[in-house]
Amino acid sequence: MNEEFSYTKSGHIDITKNRSPRKWATSILILVGITIYVAIFWAQLAKLLPPPYNQWTFIYEPLIGQWWIDNFFLNQPEYNRLTILWYILCFISSMGIPIIIIILRGRKLTDFGLGMLNKLGIRLTAIAIIVSIPFGLWIQLASPYPHRLSTMYILSLFNKIPEHFLILGILVALMLPNRRLPNPAFLAPIEGSTGKKILRWLGIAQPTTIDSDNRTLAWFGLNWTSLFAIVVSGLVFYMLHLGRANHVEVALSLPGGIVVAYITFRTHSIWHAIPAHWTLNLVPMAILHFYKFN
Fold first, then answer.
1. Given 43, 67, 98, 112, which residue has the most CB atoms within 10 angstroms?
2. Would you say 288 and 147 are in contact if contact means Cβ atoms under 8 Å apart?
3. Residue 292, CB-side half-sphere exposure with 13 Å CA sphere
4. What is the DSSP track for the chain?
5. Digit-coded pLDDT (tens) for 183-226
């Protein structure tokens, strides 16, 4: 095998390449670069910068330009125009430009999270959607903002796509020695006790062998390098939420970010975690919206 995180027929991770100091150093530099980008350009932390460096986070003009503000979506209020432009800018900078770079370098988009749906991913998505609804209600009930569905709120859900691509797809992939997500996880046969069958159905309780660098991690389909990639992705995902007024949302974003990074790593695709993230936002908001305003 030529991938560090390929899966053998026995279901464990095949570790065939050493993680050299040079590769670790490159991973750290990539992590620092993406973290700085998210903190300054995207995250609410940018508003904590001293003037004038935080100016754009309030008026966006230095990045977008006053002409676009004055002439784009003239039938919309200025706030909506700014928000729509901001979403477009996020798509371009966090998804459009990276996709162009990946293609120009002759890499596969599927190696960075734009893979197809698969069996394990669909199973994990179904569970994640169910679990996300009560947590989403908790977040919405703790929110200091009105529970109103609007066109802009629906539009904001699509901003989750570049967010997942950059932080869960690209970041996790670039933290791995081969700079790509592993192939979709091999699923061990669903057998044994009832509990074991359930765990196997979820892609957990995988067989371990002597060449696994940690038996516990291999049970989850991981090794130390992939665990590092998932945790740092979850931390950047958490950083993206820092500074928001809803403290419950901020607190839950750390374990939530680690979970969606794990799903992305195990399924080779960002498309399985996004529906759960949408459900977390949309379904509880809809419930509270129609309960309170109708």
1. 112
2. yes
3. 12
4. ---TTEE-TTSSEE--S---HHHHHHHHHHHHHHHHHIIIIISGGGGGSPTTTTTHHHH-HHHH-HHHHHHSSTTS-HHHHHHHHHHHHHHIIIIIHHHHHHHHTT--GGGGTBPPP-HHHHHHHHHHHHHHHHHHHHHHHT-SS-----HHHHHHHTTHHHHHIIIIIIHHHHHSTTSSPPPSPPPPP--SSHHHHHHHHTT-S----TT-S-HHHHHTT--HHHHHHHHHHHHHHHHHHTT-S-HHHHHHHHHHHHHHHHHHHHHTBSTTHHHHHHHHHHHHHHHHHHHHH-
5. 876 777 888 888 888 988 888 888 765 556 677 888 888 888 89
Predicted pLDDT of residue 38: 81
Beta bridge partners of 7: 13
What are 135-150's pLDDT values in tens digits?
888 888 888 777 677 7
